[in-house]
Design brief:
Elements: H1 2-24, H2 29-46, H3 50-63, H4 68-80, H5 84-97, H6 102-118, E1 125-126, E2 130-132, E3 138-141, H7 146-150, E4 157-161, E5 164-165, H8 171-178, E6 180-181, E7 185-192, E8 195-202, H9 208-214
Antiparallel strand pairs: 1-6, 2-3, 4-5, 4-7, 7-8
Length: about 220
């Protein structure tokens, strides 16, 4: 009995020493820094310290580009400070990286607002030659257009532009994502008969209908 008791005491002491040793070990520096950065950004933002959030989270993101929580609070702070063009790339990174999270969904909504309100379409921009509904469903493909050459068809549904999910975006916001510098490329993720399809379209010259819709000062 006494022998069993001594064995129990020795095992208990050994486990205690091992537990103390494990507790003394630090987490990997990157994981610890990511966690601290996310927590700091959340606290500063919730306290309304937007300038400090921007300063601290800009540094955090430069060191850890994959820290989406830091990007989120940085983007929200920039957005609230009316620095929306600066917020845009961070919101896009979150939406592409975490499209199904609450953070990604809200980031996408802000992107839609930014595009609708602030992006100006010019006659010099490149177009792809598409007509589509608010749902992203293609209504028409102009003959000889870049979209036609890339294989886009009527009834295809646009679900992402350059990797950015567009579910819930307005027709205006989707169009402004697709329109860009003449001669540049845009990637469209489509759903065709329930199956995903990705095409790359090279933006081309303006079309009469697009000019009538977008260019008001020609």
């Amino acid at each position: 009995m006494r022998s069993n008791s001594r064995l129990f005491v020795r095992e208990f002491l050994l486990l205690s020493i091992v537990a103390s040793f494990l507790c003394s070990l630090s987490l990997p520096a990157r994981a610890e820094t990511l966690s601290q950065g996310a927590e700091l950004g959340k606290r500063l933002y919730n306290e309304g310290k937007l300038d400090e959030t921007i300063e601290k989270m800009t540094k955090q993101v430069s060191l850890h580009p994959d820290d989406m929580v830091a990007r989120y609070y940085l983007a929200l702070s920039l957005y609230r400070k009316n620095r929306r063009q600066e917020a845009y790339p961070h919101l896009k990174a979150i939406s592409v990286k975490e499209p199904h999270s609450a953070m990604g969904s809200y980031s996408s909504k802000l992107i839609g607002i930014i595009l609708t309100e602030s992006k100006t379409v010019k006659k010099e921009d490149g177009f792809v030659g598409l007509k589509f509904l608010n749902t992203g469903v293609v209504q028409g493909v102009f003959e000889g257009s870049p979209a036609e050459r890339a294989g886009v068809r009527v009834n295809d549904r646009i679900v992402a532009v350059d990797g950015l999910p567009v579910e819930g975006f307005s027709q205006d916001a989707i169009a402004k994502l697709i329109i860009g510098p003449l001669g540049s490329s845009v990637s469209l993720k489509l759903m065709r008969a329930g199956k995903p399809l990705e095409v790359t379209v090279t933006r081309g010259k303006i079309y009469r209908e697009a000019e009538r819709i977008w260019i008001k000062d020609h």
